[in-house]
Amino acid sequence: MQPLSTRRTFCRNGLLATAALLAPIGRLARAASPRSLHIRTDADIGLIRPELHGHFAEHLGSCIYGGLWVGPDSPIPNIRGHRKEAVEYLKALGIPVLRWPGGCFADDYHWRDGIGPRDKRPRRVNIHWGNYTEDNSFGTHEFIDLCRLIGAEPYLAGNVGSGTPQELRDWVEYCNYPAGSTLSDERAANGSPEPFRVRYWGIGNENWGCGGQMTPEEYAGHYRRFAVYVRQFGDVRPFLIACGPNRNDTAWTQRFLSAVYTGRRFVRMDGYAMHYYSNGRLPATKFTADALREQMATFADLERAIVQQRAILDGYDPERRVGLMVDEWGVWDRMVPEEEKTYGRLWQQNTIRCAVAAALGLNVFHRQADKLVMCNLAQTVNVLHALLLTHGEKCVRTPSYYAFELAKPHRGQTAVRVDNPDPDPNGLSVSASRKDDSFALTCVNPRHDETFEVSATLSRGRLEGASARILHHPDMNAHNSFDNPNAVTPRDHAVQVTAAGLRLTLPPLSVVTVTGRLRGV
Ligand code: AHR
Question: 460 and 316, same structural domain?
Answer without folding.
Answer: no
